[in-house]
Automatic annotation (TrEMBL):
Residues annotated to bind ATP: 64, 149, 157, 205, 248
Pfam families: Sua5_C, Sua5_yciO_yrdC
Protein localization: Cytoplasm
InterPro entries per the UniProt record, alphabetical: DHBP_synth_RibB-like_a/b_dom, Sua5-like_dom, Sua5/YwlC_C, Sua5_C, T(6)A37_SUA5, TC-AMP_synthase_SUA5
Natural source organism: Silvibacterium bohemicum
UniProt protein name: Threonylcarbamoyl-AMP synthase
Domain YrdC-like as annotated: residue spans: 19-209
Length: 354
């Protein structure tokens, strides 16, 4: 059975049709069902974070292992008091600076939050989304919403309602569809994850809120760098979700080209080096002179000097090339600066073979 799509106009939430869609989605969530909805990062798959039976449906739908914790989304600070047992001083400062927005904070779990949400860890990831549909859905539902990305576990994250349907059609109760095409989300990458209870603060997952921005509030903040022990550890022993595992991956084999002198030339040389494969290129505008073999699939990724655009279109491009039948995807890596750090993180995890 197909999952119903509830159409909503993000620019006019008071429209009668949009209002009806949000009310219907909120009812499903209150009753223990699952709803995919847009945020400013990627589409999330939501369930009532206060009900273990509802949250379990997320794990089943995504085929997500129980050791991987979820992020809880809230509409206001009052709702935070039902999710977090306490708020460290640095976390409060980061909330004041970046909420609502694409920042997840690891906070002490409130007893009302079932252990399934945090995979029995003492900390719970919490964020207040900025997207108008996400905010209104949570407010209308009246409960905090646990929501990872709305895709099959390990697969490329979804930035449109169609991406959600491609992975989860018939597996969830509803999709809130803003009809915004392949990049219906503003940032296109998952939120930055920070543990502000440690000193110094630790950035476990880079995102649209950069390390430099975090340091503008918590000057000694550090980026988590997995060591060999972390990379070989059992997933349930890792300090934060997404550390040291293959994730965000297309079905095609992903090959990355490091930055440096003559990156465009090296990219062009590799583009002609996959005989017998159906090659897909994540092609920046500045690399457009590349002559690839006939039959190469090309996704026009965006301007190479605009990391925000590259981030927004990253997952859409990987999914498009997959859908066109690419068996190998060749992608240049940006420099490790600003949001380029987050792009590199997602691509590096997607290209892992373990």
């Amino acid at each position: 059975m197909q999952t119903p799509r509830l159409i909503v106009d993000a620019s006019d939430l008071n429209d009668a049709s949009s209002r009806a869609s949000i009310e219907a989605a909120a009812h499903i969530l209150r009753e223990g069902g699952t709803v995919a909805f847009p945020t400013e990062t990627v589409y999330g798959l939501g369930a009532n974070a206060l009900r273990a039976d509802a949250v379990e449906k997320i794990f089943r739908a995504k085929q997500r292992p129980s050791w991987d914790p979820l992020i809880v989304h809230i509409a206001d600070i009052e709702m935070l008091h039902h999710v977090a047992a306490s708020v460290p001083r640095n976390a409060k400062r980061l909330m004041d600076a970046f909420w609502p927005g694409p920042l997840t904070l690891l906070l002490p779990r409130h007893p009302r939050i079932p252990e399934i949400v945090t995979a029995c860890r003492p900390l719970v990831g919490v964020r207040m989304p900025q997207h108008p549909v996400a905010k209104e859905l949570i407010r209308t539902a009246g409960v905090p919403i646990a929501a990872p990305s709305a895709n099959l576990f390990g697969h490329t994250s979804p930035t449109s309602a169609q991406h959600v349907a491609d992975d989860l059609d018939g597996r969830i109760d509803a999709i809130l569809d803003t009809g915004s095409g392949e990049t219906g989300t503003e940032h296109g990458l998952e939120s930055t994850v920070v543990d502000a209870g440690q000193h110094p603060c630790v950035v476990y997952r880079p995102g649209a809120i950069t390390l430099a921005q975090i340091r503008s509030v918590c000057k000694d903040a550090v980026e988590f760098i997995a060591n060999e022990r972390d990379q070989n550890a059992a997933p349930e022993a890792l300090p934060s979700p997404g550390v040291g595992i293959r994730h965000y991956a297309p079905h095609a084999r992903l090959v990355l080209v490091e930055p440096g002198p003559d990156q465009a030339r090296r990219f062009a040389e590799q583009a002609n080096g996959f005989p017998g494969e159906t090659l897909g290129l994540m092609l920046p505008e500045e690399f457009s002179e590349i002559a690839a073999e006939k039959g190469t699939l090309i996704y026009r990724w965006g301007r190479w000097d605009d990391y925000e655009e590259l981030a927004q279109r990253l997952f859409a491009g990987l999914r498009w090339l997959d859908a066109q039948g690419a068996t190998v995807i060749l992608c240049p890596l940006p420099e490790a600066e600003g949001i380029g750090v987050a792009i590199r993180d997602r691509l590096s995890k997607a290209a892992r073979t373990e």
